Amino acid sequence: MTSRFLISALFAGALSGAIIGLLQLMFVQPVLLHAELYESGELVHFGAEAVSAHPALPGFDLMRDGLSVIFTMLTYTGYALILVAAMSFGEDRGARIDGRWGILWGVAGFVAFHLAPGFSLAPEVPGVAAADVTLRQIWWFGTAISACIALWLLAFGQNWAAWGAAALLLAAPHLIGAPEPETFTGPVPTEIGALFAARALGIGLAAWVLLGSFAGYFWQREGEHAAQAA
């Protein structure tokens, strides 16, 4: 069981992390680099003259971009360990786990770790006003854990009490409210902030769909190998 768990999580996390790392370099990093030009003061909008929306950006950097892909692979391997553990508990309760059903597990992971926190604490580009980072991290972890429990109750709950508790857990962090900045002082144009939030959530969905499908596939394959070896 231990080898099945580790092999499934490591392969799923590394594969999905490598693909997502490349997608982030293509779609998210250009928006980040654009925002950093405003954060550093190299570009300023609201001036007398219009500012180009297509400035020259730094090109591919092997060290920086290579480390970014490796860090993404490590991050999604960590997520894979959580997802495969949840899949194993789900299988014990009769859930079918394979590459196709893994997509649904991946969408659930996206909701728990991206969409639910992002509903009140949107992805932030460099240079925007934000509340204290520690407070945001505490709220983010609380919201993600609450969403994970809620989705489990929705999937495996047997009565209205469980489903009602799930609804409460999903809503509570947003009724409490995410930490917000005292004032809006960020120099970054709203168009860049909006594009970054859209790209971050879109890539997040793709990442979790891939992660769920890979995790389900490897979990099923390793289970079949273990059954044949027994």
From TrEMBL:
Range of residues in the leader sequence: none
Superkingdom of the organism of origin: Bacteria
Transmembrane segments: 67-89, 101-118, 138-155, 160-176, 196-219
Keyword Acyltransferase among record annotations: no
Keywords: Membrane, Transmembrane, Transmembrane helix
Pfam family membership, one: CbtA
Protein name per UniProt: Cobalt transporter
Organism listed in the record: Sulfitobacter alexandrii
